[in-house]
Amino acid sequence: MKHGYSGDQLQVFKKANIFYIRKIYKNKARAQISIFKQSSFTRITSGNYQMTAVPILGYLNIDDKIGIEMPYISGEAGSDLMLSGYIDVPKSLKELLGMYLSSILDKSDIKTMDAKPGLKKIEHIKSTTPLVWHKYLDKGKEFFIKEINKKDVPYPSGVCHGDLTLSNILYKNGCFYLIDFIPSTYESVLSDIVKLEQDLTFGWSSRNCAREVACDLALFSRSATPEVINLIKSHNRMAFDAIEILNWLRIIPYIIDEKTEKFVTKTLDQIFSSK
């Protein structure tokens, strides 16, 4: 049994010589949203490539917790996907991600951003992290109070993946499988763009890779970044900045090694200096 960052339990099991994944969610409310997102995802096709969610084969209720069963897909994700060497994969991923982000935007409603959920999240993070990180959390709080709470900031509100990093995109035989859908503090296409840029711009999933492959990683990132991202960001700059700040702050409680600590510190300094 494996536990993820969220406390959810993952178990690989075998039935009739076929491997499956069983996922038991720690929190029932979060589970319901996550399962809804995964089960309602609409397959996207571009040429010979597809993007879809890993199908849910069954539902479980165990000790008042919700679970699902899925096929076990042995694909490449994260830095393994970036270094796979498949010539057409970055271009196809770019096309499919662009189509996906555009579809979310088309289904979105324009709402005024409420600072309260962001401020509540920051206060929760602050209560669980060492003092050394509080200066960044205070900067985040200041941004939400000054730029979001006191202004009418519009943003596109609509159901998104919630954790769309390359680590949650499995590639196998021409298909990109999305996994680990989660609720977002702000349900928006902007949240998915922030998570994609966490990898494609800042290099989160490849932070532990050797310097010798830096050029290959950078080439993949440039080739896989959808052009629509800059267009959506340009029309929602303030809301995007708020969600980006919140995203990097929420990583802080999960830092367990010095290299990641330095990586997140450098990124937060870069982000706040640009706002």
Q: What attributes does this structure have?
A:
275 residues; alpha+beta; Transferase(Phosphotransferase), domain 1; five-stranded antiparallel β-sheet; four-stranded mixed β-sheet; 11 strands; 47% helix; 19% strand; globular
Structural commentary:
There is one protein chain. This protein has ten helices and eleven strands. It has 275 residues and is α+β, with helices and mostly antiparallel strands. It has a domain of 122 residues: Orthogonal Bundle (Transferase(Phosphotransferase), domain 1). The strands form three sheets. The chain has a five-stranded antiparallel beta sheet with strand order 1-2-3-7-6, with helices on one face. α4 packs antiparallel against α5, α6 packs across α9 and α9 packs antiparallel against α10. It is globular, with a radius of gyration of 19 Å. The mean pLDDT is 95.
